[in-house]
């Protein structure tokens, strides 16, 4: 294949064209980010790292996401390809960096599927316990065989919906996303009402200093907070992987990405201010610094904030994790499809279901890998699973950073004399990409400390570092195996290295 990918890719893969519009794409983007699920586990650890500067860190974490999204939008406009990071990085930098960029996306998305399923299991049994008034039902989530079996059922159901294509996905997401957003706004309003009435545990007045990122104690704390904030924004790029199935493939996905990020940053700031003013950052009781409640903050705050309707928060987090579990299948399945299509993986990964026009084989493989990973990790240790999720922030920074720099390199020189093009295809993605790669390096260095994450270690080295760098190293091994078996892609025959030949 010698023709430019931007002219030929969309007609070649067999995905259903025009299945999703702007609103549907934004809904799926918000679903993948899973605000209710993400916030319940991220608000506490982030507050522990940066104290009451939580809103500032959420804003700073939003900046590189916005800058990188501008680069994604430019690349999508030139090359609307379901492979996104893999295809674009291969086109800009060559097959080796492109393959590793795709691997970073695959590792992050496939591994987080297992965590989403695990959270869904926990809240499923918590919901049943609240409905029946039988507290022993909630304890079933701690029963490993029951937990794993339930998780596999959830994974299979999510895989089934995803296999049926984006139309089935869209219908499910409208209901689940709308419900969790309504409950989160309800929670925030109720928290502010408690503060106004003087019935909140902390009852803090909103302080402009909370928005000052320079008030964070150290750069390590700042980097740790940013890594967590990057993770909570992660997922918006799913709208780009649907580009070949979206109405207006060259423009709609980019607009959907920016719209998704805008919706999420407003929601996150609202929730951060609500919980901070209600609970404070203390280490006792309902304080955000209390390690006993950090892994599931809403489970602790729902009753004090929402009173008799607290069960709605459990339902919201369950809906959030279930919705994200299903929509998160979109990215790895379509990346695997593209890698099979271009010869970077065996051709069976390029199989598209004739009935549903979806990447059937790749979707099933993603589900199987995530299910096996969850089952093994759950049996071995819950800390291993938590540390793996912590390590995902490193991979997110890695592949977002690589994609942003691919935009700069691909469009190099095409923006001369055009200020708007220079800002959107050079300056913005360059700053965003460099920032994320700096955070990647800083987090990698800090995570070598055995006390990082859960405190687990291997040979005196922090488990988060071992998992994060280990997964990337595994990608190198798999890449070398594929290089020996499928040399065509690695010689640039399917995705030739190139640069933009038109104005950005």
TrEMBL record:
It is a multi-pass membrane protein. GO terms for cellular component: plasma membrane. GO terms for molecular function: transmembrane transporter activity. The chain crosses the membrane at residues 20-44, 56-75, 96-128, 140-163, 175-196, 216-236, 256-278, 298-319, 358-377, 389-410, 422-441, 461-481. This is Amino acid transporter. The lineage of its organism: Bacteria, Bacillati, Actinomycetota, Actinomycetes, Kineosporiales. It is found in: Cell membrane. It comes from the Bacteria. Pfam families: AA_permease_2 (PF13520). Keywords: Cell membrane, Membrane, Transmembrane, Transmembrane helix. InterPro entries: AA/rel_permease1 (IPR002293), APC_superfamily (IPR050367).
């Amino acid at each position: 294949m010698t023709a430019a990918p931007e002219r030929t890719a969309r007609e070649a893969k067999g995905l259903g064209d025009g299945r999703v519009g702007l609103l549907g794409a934004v809904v799926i983007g918000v679903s993948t980010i899973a605000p209710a699920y993400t916030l319940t586990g991220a608000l506490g650890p982030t507050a522990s790292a940066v104290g009451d500067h939580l809103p500032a860190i959420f804003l700073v974490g939003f900046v590189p996401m916005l800058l990188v999204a501008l680069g994604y939008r430019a690349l999508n406009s030139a090359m609307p390809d379901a492979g996104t990071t893999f295809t674009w990085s291969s086109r800009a930098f060559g097959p080796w960096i492109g393959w590793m960029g795709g691997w970073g996306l695959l590792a992050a998305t496939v591994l987080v599927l297992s965590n989403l399923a695990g959270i869904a299991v926990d809240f499923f049994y918590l919901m049943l316990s609240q409905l029946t008034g039988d507290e022993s039902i909630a304890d079933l989530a701690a029963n490993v065989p029951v937990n794993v079996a339930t998780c596999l059922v959830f994974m299979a159901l999510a895989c089934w919906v995803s296999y049926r294509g984006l139309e089935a996905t869209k219908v499910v997401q409208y209901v689940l996303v709308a419900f969790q957003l309504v409950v989160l706004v309800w929670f925030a309003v109720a928290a502010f009402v408690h503060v106004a009435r003087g019935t909140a545990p902390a009852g803090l007045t909103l302080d402009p200093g909370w928005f000052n990122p320079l008030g964070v104690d150290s750069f390590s704390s700042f980097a740790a907070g940013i890594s967590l904030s990057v993770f909570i924004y992660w997922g918006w790029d799913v709208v780009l992987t649907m580009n070949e199935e979206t109405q207006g493939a060259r423009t709609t996905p980019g607009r959907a990405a920016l719209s998704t990020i805008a919706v999420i940053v407003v929601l996150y700031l609202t929730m951060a201010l609500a919980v901070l003013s209600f609970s404070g950052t203390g280490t006792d009781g309902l304080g955000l610094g209390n390690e006993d409640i950090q892994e599931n903050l809403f489970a602790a705050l729902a009753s004090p904030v929402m009173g008799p309707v607290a069960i709605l928060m459990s339902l919201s987090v369950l809906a959030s994790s279930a919705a994200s579990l299903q929509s998160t299948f979109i990215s790895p399945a379509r990346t695997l499809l593209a890698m099979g299509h271009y010869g970077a993986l065996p051709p069976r990964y390029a199989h598209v279901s004739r009935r549903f026009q979806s990447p059937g084989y790749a979707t099933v493989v993603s589900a199987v890998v995530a299910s096996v990973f969850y089952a093994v990790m759950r049996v071995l240790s819950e800390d291993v699973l938590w540390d793996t999720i912590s390590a995902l922030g490193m991979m997110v920074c890695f592949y977002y950073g690589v994609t942003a720099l691919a935009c700069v390199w691909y469009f190099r020189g095409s923006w001369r004399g055009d200020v708007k093009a220079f800002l959107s295809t050079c300056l913005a993605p360059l700053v965003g990409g460099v920032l994320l790669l700096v955070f990647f390096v800083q987090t990698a260095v800090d995570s070598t400390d055995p006390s990082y994450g859960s405190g687990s270690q291997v040979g005196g080295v922090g488990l988060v570092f071992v998992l994060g760098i280990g997964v990337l190293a595994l990608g190198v091994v798999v890449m070398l195996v594929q290089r020996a078996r499928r040399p065509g892609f690695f010689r640039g025959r399917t995705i030739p290295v190139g640069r933009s030949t038109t104005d950005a």
